[in-house]
Amino acid sequence: MNSHFYYKAIEPDKSLNDFVENIGMFHNMSDKDMEVVLMPDGRIDLFFMQSKPEVFQIALIGLENVPEQQFIPANTLAFKISFKPLGAEYILQTSIADILNSAKVLPQDFWNVTNDDLKNFDTFHSKITKKLQELLPKEIDERKRKLFKLVYALNGEIKVQELSEQIAWSSREINRYFNKQFGLSLNAFCKILRFKASLEHIAKGRLFPELNFTDQNHFIKEIKKFSGVVPSELLKNTNDRFILLSVLKEQ
After folding, report:
1. Whether the Cβ atoms of residue 40 and residue 65 lie closer than 8 Å to each other
2. How far apart are alpha carbons 36 and 34 in whole angstroms?
3. Is the same domain home to 118 and 15?
4. Residue 210 sits in which domain range?
5. pLDDT in tens, 40-88
6. Is residue 165 domain-shared with residue 114, that is, in the same domain?
C-alpha cells in the first residue's frame, strides 16, 4: 500500500459480532490529497475525522451500491467503526435509507468523542468498545439475526425465497424491511456481499468467477458494476486507488 497511507482494522469483541464488523483507522500522512475509489462493501461507517488541527468532524456513511471517486484530504486522520446493518438499526437506532450512496454529518458531541480521542488508537478502541457494549440491545428480532447470519455465512449466495422459508418471514416483509431500513433490497445487498467476497479472489490474482455467477461475462459485468473497472484493471490497482483491494492484498 502507498507508504504515505496507513490503515488498520481489528475485529470487535465477540459480544458485538452481530452489529460491528471492525473498529479501525486510516491516516493520509501525505501533504497531498489522495484519490481513492470507494466500492460497495456492505458496511455502514461512522467516522471521527481530523484533517487540520482546527477541523474535527463526525460523519455517518450509508451503504453504497455504486463505486464513487473520492479524495482523502492531506494529513487526514480518521478513526472509524464499521457497522453491519443490524448495528445501524440497534446500536445507532436509525434508518440509513436516506443516506444510500451518501453521508450525513453528526453533532460534534456525538458519543462524547473529541479530537483528543484521535491521539491514540488503543485508547479510542477501548472507549468505543465500552460505549458500544453499553448500547447493546436487550432484545433483538431473532428473524433478523438469523437472516444476517445466513447471508454473511453464504457471501450473499442465497435466494430471498429460500431465506424466507428458513426464518419464517415472508419475502415481501423482508424486502419492505430492507428498503425502509437500509435503502435497498435484500437481493441488492446480497450482490454486494458476493462482490466483496470476489475481491478476496481478485486480490490473489484469480480473475475468474468462483461464486455463483452465470459465466465469465456475468462475473466481469458485476465486478465492473461495483468497482467501475474490469477485474484485470482492478487487480492492477494503479496508485492504490482501490483501498479495500490494497488491504486484502496485504492480508
Report:
1. yes
2. 6
3. yes
4. 142-250
5. 999 999 999 998 767 899 999 999 999 999 999 999 999 999 999 999 9
6. no
> How much is the pTM?
0.95
Per the structure, the count of domains in the chain is 2
Among candidate residues 58, 52, 57, the one with its CA nearest the CA of residue 76: 52
d(CA 102, CA 193): 19
In a 13 Å sphere around the CA of 88, the CA atoms on its Cβ side amount to: 25
Question: Percent of the chain beyond pLDDT 90?
Answer: 86
Are residues 15 and 125 both part of a single domain? yes
Looking at 68, 100, 134, which one is the last position of a domain?
A: 134
> Over the chain, what is the mean pLDDT?
94
Q: What is the DSSP string of 38-93?
A: E---S-EEEEEEEEETTEEEEEEE---SS-EEEEE-TT-EEEEEEE-HHHHHHTS-
Residues 104 and 38 in one domain: yes
How many other C-beta atoms lie within 10 A of the C-beta of residue 16? 23
pLDDT tens digits for range 130-166: 999 999 999 999 999 999 999 999 999 999 999 999 9
